[in-house]
Amino acid sequence: KSALSDVVEVRTRYVTDIPVIKAVTTEYAIYRRYCKRCKKVVEPFFPYALPHARFGLHLMLLVLILKLDKRLPSEQIRSLLKMQYSLGISDGEVYGILRQLAEAFGSYYTSLQEKIRSALVKHSDETGWRENGEYRWLWLFINREVALYLIREKRSSKVPIAELGNQQDKIVNSDRFSAYSQLAKKTGCLQQLCWAHILRESERLAKLYPEARYVHKRLKYIYAKATSENPPNVEKLLHWTDLIVGMRRYHIPRVYKFARSICRINRENLFRFVGNPEVESTNNRAERGLRHAVIMRKISNGSRSE
Question: Would you call 77 exposed, middle or buried from its count of C-beta atoms within 10 A (0-12, 13-18, 19+)?
């Protein structure tokens, strides 16, 4: 070992870390006073926790984020809080926190409902769900601004009809599920069929039946033209679509039924996106919106209660 000299230079180094944090319980003194006018004891608004809540807002919102955004089961939420903050919390308390927040944000959920109902363009889709082991349906209504989720017993047209109400001349983007046809009849909405669903189905038919190859080829060509930088006018696109059924005779009932459904029954619902940048040609927005819920369903197998 040899003796070191005086300091000859100073080297700087940056390290980002997080502090070791333990949960803190704080006692607040809340000064209450008697009001002669109200004839009762009153106190100031308490900003750090919801009424009758054991936990503060920061902790409650963290549980909400872990459950809904990160899709963690309650057992893993409890484990993380114990490991990170030395905080012991029961399974019932996790769901108690979620229930209290649901009640606190109830008015915000109502505002989401109003925004979806009034939106000129919206997407809709549905997927299976389980509530305490019983089969349910998770419905989604979404646009570029908000997403509204509903869990209902049925997968029938009564759900979107009851939720959306009058939709005269507003556009709903969806697949060809029959409930949305009834929605259009009952609420006055217009439909935009999802072209991704149409082309996937025509491709499946083309693999099964040779005469369906023509249908798939023509639909693929028409869609490519409709989504090009300079698309033809809607009248020309509809004319090309009409020719798919009008110029050929089909021998396979399944192929004819599909072609007739697309090119005749739903012809007016194919090209509402042409010339309208607010309308999308596919329902991918709704499918992406359901993805988080599907992952949560796989992890936790649904929800325990209404």
Answer: buried
pLDDT tens digits for 99-116? Answer: 999 999 889 999 999 999
Selection from 165, 157, 150, 151 nearest residue 119 by Cα:
165
Helix (H, G, I), strand (E, B) or coil at 249: coil
- Please state, rounded to an integer, the average pLDDT across all residues of the chain: 94
Got the DSSP string for 180-221?
Answer: HHHHHHHH--EEEE-HHHHHHHHHHHHHH-TTHHHHHHHHHH
Strand segments, DSSP code E, in 36-108 are 40-42
Give 19 or 289, the one with higher predicted confidence.
Answer: 289
CA nearest 274: which of 244, 239, 243, 232? 232
Cα(179)–Cα(158) distance, integer angstroms: 8
Averaged pLDDT, 59-64: 96
Torsional class of 292: left (φ above 0), alpha (ψ -120 to 50), beta (otherwise) = alpha
Question: How far is residue 71's CA from residue 195's CA, in Å, rounded to a whole number?
Answer: 31
Say whether 303 sits in a helix, a strand or coil.
strand
